[in-house]
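Kindly inspect this chain:
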Amino acid sequence: MHIAIAGNIGSGKTTLTKMLAKRFGWSAHFEPVDNNPYLDDFYHDMKRWSFNLQVYFLNQRFKDVVEISKSEKTIIQDRTIFEDARIFAPNLHDMGMMSDRDFDNYSDLFDLMISLVRLPDLMIYIKSSIPTLIDHIEKRGRDFEQTIRIDYLKGLNHRYEDFIKEYKGRLLIIDGDHTDFQNDARVFDQIADSIDSELYGLFSSNKK
């Protein structure tokens, strides 16, 4: 089974991924951040490095999808290949940070990959406002994220909303502004119960 956590930068995807993996005994796949060779350069010069970064993410994410499709385990994934292509790359293109030529090349590559990819069994979207995202980004203190532009985050948020409205798979939305799943055990239990119900049915005892 494939569970995916979606959400903007700073929404809490990685935290929720870790907590749910521990709760249900799932195998976690995390977004490649610490060892990403492009992120620092990208946040300092988006126009120069946007195509390189997005192709890197697309490649890593496709590897994850292939591995997930072959696995007999239930895997929970921090961000999906769909977000890269439907949200992040188009947002950079709209901002003038990715040329038409690069965006068309990227889109053709994604269309080829997506023909081999199916939707997750459950998509969990953490919906967060810009102030919440900024607060989380500042608190975790990654140096390369301190130069993130507000208009970049806003553009991503708008595209996430459009993506979620059109999403055709099974979906659970979490209010990231008013749901402190990291520090409130009762809130996290409610989220876990909702996920359990979505995946297995309300009365199922199958947790993995």
